[in-house]
Write a structure and sequence with these properties.
With 218 residues, the chain is an alpha/beta fold. The protein has nine helices and five strands, in the order ααααβαβαβαβαβα. It folds into two domains: 77 residues, Methyltransferase, Methionine Synthase (B12-binding Domains), Chain A, domain 1 (Orthogonal Bundle), CATH 1.10.1240; 122 residues, Rossmann fold (3-Layer(aba) Sandwich), CATH 3.40.50. The chain is 54% helix and 10% strand. Helix 1 runs antiparallel to helix 2 and helix 3 packs antiparallel against helix 4. The structure holds cobalamin.
Length: 218
């Protein structure tokens, strides 16, 4: 198929708009146009992805948050990321993190959003799922050589479990791993109470904090 020269900047802006609208099929077709163009389409599509996620981050503060909007944008962003880097070849220049909802808690919407945001921000995210034993969280952190372990907690009974994470990491020689907590029940506590390094207000706050840690480690 022959492709005409495209006004790259226009397609790139249109891709940002489609991502923010959460329109996966439009975003995919614009990504394909960028990839088929003569210019460095992958670079332009990635830049559009980053712009859209930054704008979404600025919009979605912990005080002002539209769940549907962010889920649709997250889904469109993941579709674009898969188109750009098929078969799990997504580059993860910022390193590996492990995320889970600890045992006893079946809430996972916020965890899944956090995973999507971190993935599109250049982290390799290993998701241990919900209702996950804390021992499995630590074992996965060791196996995947993650620099951070993230716990998402929506119900108060997981607080004592989160408090144990650091001790378990230490006992496995993983005292250097950064522990981050988030989710409705955990973000009401301080880092000291939870015995973690940081409590994220939302997924974008977590991405910013982990970006700083990752940069300091490189
Ligand atoms: C949806 C929901 C459910 C769904 C969950 C579906 C799912 N797949 O997740 C269902 C119906 C299954 C459910 C079940 C229950 N629920 Co419920 N549920 C909710 C509800 C309404 C919304 C939670 C949600 O998804 N919010 C949207 C997401 C996007 O927000 P979020 O998780 O906070 O995530 C954002 C940030 O916090 C952050 N984030 C999330 N994780 C992480 C992790 C890290 C590391 C970081 C940095 C950031 C981060 O990123 C996200 C985006 O920025 C809340 C009420 C509320 N307003 O919070 C109650 C609520 C959490 N549930 C509650 C309860 C009590 C229950 C049940 C025990 C009810 C029952 N008696 O059976 C069961 C739990 C069973 C169990 N063992 O877990 C209570 C918890 C109270 C408490 N403090 O303990 C709440 C607060 C309702 C209430 N006011 O009483 N629930």
């Amino acid at each position: 198929m022959k492709h005409q020269k495209l006004p790259i900047d226009l397609v790139r802006s249109a891709l940002v708009a489609s991502l923010l609208e959460g329109d996966s099929s439009k975003a995919l077709s614009q990504t394909r146009k960028l990839l088929a163009s003569e210019a460095d389409g992958q670079h332009h599509a990635l830049a559009a992805l980053e712009t859209a996620m930054d704008r979404m981050g600025a919009k979605c503060t912990s005080e002002q948050f539209n769940l549907l909007e962010i889920m649709l944008t997250g889904r469109a962003a993941m579709a674009v990321a898969r188109e750009l880097f098929p078969q799990g070849t997504v580059p993860s220049p910022r390193g590996t993190v492990v995320i889970a909802t600890p045992q006893g808690d079946v809430h996972d919407l916020g965890k899944n959003i956090t995973r999507m945001v971190l993935t599109t921000k250049g982290f390799r995210v290993i998701d241990c799922g919900k209702d996950c034993p804390i021992e499995d969280m630590v074992t996965t952190t060791a196996r995947e050589q993650a620099f951070a372990l993230l716990a998402s907690g929506l119900i108060s009974p997981v607080i004592p479990l989160v408090r144990q994470l650091r001790g378990l990491l230490h006992s496995r020689g993983l005292g250097h791993v950064v522990v981050v907590a988030g989710g409705a029940a955990l973000k009401q506590c301080t880092a000291e109470v939870l015995n973690v390094d940081y409590v994220g207000r939302d997924a974008f706050d977590a991405a910013r904090f982990l970006g700083e840690v990752s940069a300091a480690l490189q």
